Fold each of these.
Amino acid sequence: MTPEQYEKHIAAVCDQIAAKSNAGEVIDPTAINARLEAGNPANWPIHALCAKLRVPGFHGPRHEPALASAAAVRVKMVREIQNVIDKVLTWHRSGSGDAGVAGLHFAMHVDVGLGKSSAVRREVHRFISEARAAGSPHRVLWLVPHHRLADETLKEFRLLGIKAIIWRGRDTIDPGSGQTMCRDLDAINEAQAVHADVGKTVCGTQGGPQCPFRGGCQYLQQKQAAASADVIIAATNALFAPIPISVSDFGIVVVDEGFWQRGVQKKRDITLSSFASDVRRNPVLANGAATLRGIIPSSEVCRWMT
């Protein structure tokens, strides 16, 4: 039988099974299996029906199998991506963002090798052009799990004529110098461990105390290029830790590949004795409690700080 003939055959068998069930007759699973081509994915309607009727030996599929060709799936995928971009453009034109309306969220799970990233990049190109023409936020934040993929994405965007940059994290190696983007990672880690504002406590502010490496900091120097880029490519960590760039003019955020594992924080323990060291290190606290320098027990330090 041709695939079309076999599908009609399956439909007829389903009708016969349903008729037997409605008449209260016993359904013989052996007789059903004798009419099926073993392993044919087109059998799923019978398995689903028999599982629903609790016929022994049949288990319902969790989802309808993908029977379409790769080409047909690719066409449908591109159509869905275009639909998403159209909805985002309409949302911006309606002024929903300015009115405080919650943003739109879309998720798509597509098998490998179908060109989903390439298709989204082409539609992002269209989004940037149409959003800019309409006076809507047109910039794009594109998030990837690792920098190898970031380099590939940057190359593809530039081939499309899009101005894109890679936002590199503090601990990422700067391709130019071969050193980390931030030159004082120990200070960064200490600040993050106590949930301090890294920009203020480590990098410093104009007119106030500053990091000794601030003048030549490759991490902060990215901000100028990022300010004029249409697409900023960053690691998915940006979903869970802020990056020092304005996000008010981003019109869309694309997360390429899985990301949720990055949001699972490892357990951190804060020891009681660490509060005493904080007091000794911090000039403001130290000036107000000079007598705490190793003289008063940690428990008293905690009581004083609260």
Note: The chain has three domains: 3-52, 70-182+217-263, 273-305.
Amino acid sequence: MKDNISGERSHPSPSPGAIDPWSRLNDAGDDLTVDNFITTVMSQTVNALRRVTTLPYARRFGLTVPEWRILALLAHAHAIPFSKLVVQSTSDKALVSRTLRLLEQRGLVALEAEGPAPRKRLVCTITPAGEALHAQVIPVARQAQASMINLLTPEERRVMFTALKRIHRRCLDVGAPDGEDGEG
């Protein structure tokens, strides 16, 4: 439906008494449709959040979302081995590598090989220019993130945070089978 003031699409909130497809879910998930799979709902939500929350401030400062994510992680860690950065970024190795090279070309990160060949490890560090850019972006990023989080009541925020952390811990405990990326 169209919002009369802005002309943008608005989505009505579900009525408080509406039964969601997860409320009476059995262990077999018999009544789940693909559009109500947790992976589908989470993926759609994450993609929408990235588009409306993260992308605007990343673009404002001349960054892509992957560049911002890597820069923010390096600002927190200051120096981190490439392999750990890949894990913390939750991105694939190739994307992290490409992103680091672009950030290095802009003088925002430094990459240094350490150790004897052939098992040199790549250590990634944030440069003073990267720290300065991060210092500009982080207050804007925090405000954008807070505005989305604050759409929820304090109780909804508590429940959502707790639930997301529980699901994440379970995923870490179970892990993905070898050779699978966990998509789907």
Note: Residues 1-9 have pLDDT under 50 and may be disordered.
